[in-house]
């Protein structure tokens, strides 16, 4: 056991990674005007599957996993009138740590009349991992944002529960410098909240989706998504303070994504005014 731990320590160097992206409108479509990176964060070339010129970008993390001590920072700026959709091709994996905390931080700024759709794949927290994950979205008064974050505690397919480790996750949306929605999830492995009726009920998959809009009439349409056969899992929709909030609690990352994609297709048409076009990476 000691030899294995020593080999793991020797084989890994703590990563420091930064990715800066800036999108702007040019000739009826959005372009990736600026990108800068160091460390293991980068993007593929932009894709344009939509006739409206929306720029689809996939953020890549080639190592595939995050360990204690890693620091991943992503900065995204969407200039006025630009429209970007950002996703990732694979789940983020946070591996066990003997001590240091892994940090992943995303700062997103969306200027006046700009649109950002933020759809990362799920983060999987292995038992024993120590993670701090923060996403902060800063909006102008007339910009649009719709996005989700999905978390899997442990590895249900391997019957691994989140019995050790710690998580501090924040998902913040601000508008004109004022907080619109701030969510924080702070857990330790084996925490009673993981199993309690007032907590997570033993479910390992948690999802949160935000769409900034004042259109209250969409709630009933979104709630029909609960007719999807998701067994004893939970999907809920509410609206507070100018934002529609969707939540998922269950056993399956795939079902969480399917619920959120169904919600996005309604929101995209009714709030942004364009029919939803799924990134082709979702079909592979």
Class derived from helix and strand content? mainly beta
Order of helices and strands: HEEEEEEEEEEEEEEEEHEEH
The structural domain count equals 1
Residues in β-strands, percent = over 45%
Q: What does the overall shape look like?
A: globular
Average pLDDT figure = 91
Briefly summarize what is shown.
The protein is mainly beta and 284 residues long.
Describe the structure.
There is one protein chain. The protein has 284 residues and is mainly beta. It has one domain (13-283). Helix content is 12%, strand content 45%. The protein has three helices and 18 strands. It has helices at 2-11, 219-223, 253-272, and strands at 16-26, 29-38, 42-43, 55-60, 65-66, 71-78, 83-87, 92-94, 102-110, 115-119, 123-125, 130-139, 144-153, 166-175, 178-188, 205-212, 234-240, 243-250. The strands form two sheets. Strands 3, 4, 5, 7, 8, 10, 11, 13, 16, 17 and 18 form an eleven-stranded mixed beta sheet that branches. It has a seven-stranded mixed beta sheet with strand order 2-1-6-9-12-14-15, with no helix packed on it. The longest helix has 20 residues, at 253-272. It is globular. It starts with a helix and ends in a 12-residue tail after the last helix.
């Amino acid at each position: 056991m000691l030899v294995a731990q020593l080999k793991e320590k020797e084989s890994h160097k703590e990563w420091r990674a930064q990715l800066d992206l800036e999108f702007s409108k040019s000739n009826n479509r959005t372009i990736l005007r600026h990108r800068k990176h160091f460390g293991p964060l980068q993007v593929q070339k932009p894709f344009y599957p939509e006739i409206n010129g929306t720029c689809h970008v996939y953020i890549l993390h080639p190592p595939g996993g995050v360990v204690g001590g890693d620091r991943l920072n992503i900065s995204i700026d969407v200039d006025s009138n630009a429209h970007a959709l950002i996703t990732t091709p694979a789940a983020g994996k946070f591996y066990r740590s003997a001590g240091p905390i892994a940090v992943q931080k995303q700062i997103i700024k969306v200027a006046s009349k700009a649109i950002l759709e933020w759809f990362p794949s799920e983060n999987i927290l292995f038992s024993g991992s120590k993670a701090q994950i923060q996403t902060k979205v800063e909006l102008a008064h007339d910009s649009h944002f719709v996005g989700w974050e999905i978390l899997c505690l442990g590895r249900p397919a391997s019957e691994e529960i989140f019995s050790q480790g710690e998580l501090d996750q924040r998902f913040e949306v601000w508008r004109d410098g004022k907080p619109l929605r701030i969510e924080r999830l702070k857990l330790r492995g084996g925490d009673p909240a993981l199993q309690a009726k007032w907590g997570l009920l033993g479910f390992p998959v948690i999802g949160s989706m935000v769409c900034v809009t004042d259109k209250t009439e969409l709630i009933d349409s979104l709630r029909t998504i609960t007719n999807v056969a998701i067994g004893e899992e939970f999907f809920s929709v509410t609206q507070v303070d100018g934002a529609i909030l969707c939540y998922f609690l269950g056993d399956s990352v795939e079902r969480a994504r399917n619920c959120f994609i169904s919600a996005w297709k309604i929101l995209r048409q009714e709030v942004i005014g364009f029919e939803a076009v799924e990134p082709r990476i979702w079909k592979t």
